């Protein structure tokens, strides 16, 4: 019963970890950028900062109040746009590194 209840969550966690490992090596796909951007939004929500749905990622980064998080969010958003819409795979490891910094703050 435990395996049935916890199995799907464990499998999702494992797949997510494998995706992040691939992204660190710069082997991700453009759609993976959204995964990392959503991770950033979840981290910000834990700190009481929510992105309104009507703002684009770039607009959201610009309207954030100046705090210690603002430069990280701005850099991460720039990397997201480069990776997602510019196809620059080398932005993926930078996104992962910035997310790690954001988690530590």
Helix content: over 70%
Task: Kindly state the number of beta strands.
Answer: 0
Gross morphology is: globular
Secondary-structure content class: mainly alpha
Radius of gyration: 15 Å
Q: What is the H/E string?
A: HHHHH
Describe the biggest sheet?
none
Straight-line distance between termini: 38 Å
Arithmetic mean of pLDDT: 82
The number of helical segments is: 5
Return residue spans where pLDDT drops below 50 for at least 5 consecutive residues. none
| Strand residue content | under 5%
Structure notes:
- The protein has helices spanning 2-24, 32-46, 57-63, 70-86, 91-104.
- The protein is mainly alpha-helical and 105 residues long.
- The longest helix is centred in the N-terminal third of the chain and has 23 residues, at 2-24.
- The protein is globular, with a radius of gyration of 15 Å.
- The N and C termini lie far apart (38 Å).
- The mean pLDDT is 82.
SSE blueprint and pairings:
Layout lengths: L1 H23 L7 H15 L10 H7 L6 H17 L4 H14 L1
Helix pairs in contact: 2-4, 2-5, 3-4, 4-5
Give a quick precis of the structure.
The protein has helices at residues 2-24, 32-46, 57-63, 70-86, 91-104. With 105 residues, the protein is mostly helical. Helix 2 (32-46) packs antiparallel against helix 4 and helix 2 (32-46) packs parallel to helix 5 (91-104).
């Amino acid at each position: 019963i435990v395996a049935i209840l916890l199995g799907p969550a464990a499998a999702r966690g494992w797949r997510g970890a494998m995706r992040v490992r691939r992204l660190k090596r710069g082997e991700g796909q453009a759609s993976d950028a959204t995964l990392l951007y959503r991770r950033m939004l979840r981290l910000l929500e834990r700190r009481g900062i929510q992105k309104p749905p009507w703002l684009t990622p770039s607009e959201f980064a610009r309207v954030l109040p100046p705090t210690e998080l603002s430069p990280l969010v701005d850099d991460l958003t720039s990397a997201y746009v480069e990776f997602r819409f510019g196809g620059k795979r080398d932005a993926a490891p930078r996104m992962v590194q910035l997310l790690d910094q954001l988690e530590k703050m």
